[in-house]
Amino acid sequence: MAKCAQLIGSSGSNWAKRSNTPGAITSLGFSPDGETLGTGSADGTAHVFDLATGKARGFVVKHKTPLVSVDVGRHDLLLTASEDGVAKVLNAKDGQLIAEINCGAKIRNAHLGGSGTFLSTILSDNTVRIWECQTGKPAQGVIRTDEGIVDAD
Asked: 19, 8 in Cβ contact below 8 A?
């Protein structure tokens, strides 16, 4: 059975369709300029759409486990993060990998910083960690709590 995801325009028209989607969409993110949409799925894949045309860009980002976060930021950055603790920073235009980060714990959520210099991850070990987007290296100290973290943006 083929499955698909559809992007419906404000007028109700079906202007983008992603066929053969084996997993549910688990995360999505819009670029700050409103021109790009990134989607992440339970099958561990991420797709990027050009919102002016409704067409998918010609690449697929693959992870081994379901995606928990997709974010599209300034400077054409795409962040994908999966349950297995791997975050990837890519070029949102062509899918070229910029950095791959093994966070050392399951990722609950992840966000690109407004400047595109840093990203943050919320991890299952009750920490928030900050990373450099271009290198994937840890950038700052760790925020730890015994109470858990729901979200940070």
From this structure: no
Closest by Cα among 15, 19, 114, 14 to 5: 19
What residue ranges in the chain does DSSP mark as E strands?
Answer: 4-8, 14-19, 25-30, 36-41, 45-50, 55-56, 61-62, 67-73, 77-82, 86-91, 97-102, 107-112, 118-123, 127-132, 143-144
Cβ atoms of 22 and 7 within 8 Å: the answer is no
Residue 54: which pLDDT band, with cuts at 50, 70 and 90? confident
Q: What are phi and psi of 74, to 5 degrees?
A: -65, 165
Q: Which of 20, 54, 17 is nearest to 35 (CA)?
A: 54
Structure letter (DSSP) for residue 138:
B
Q: Among 5-9, 21-25, 93-97, 126-130, which is the least confidently predicted range? A: 5-9
pLDDT in tens, 100-120: 999 999 999 999 998 889 999
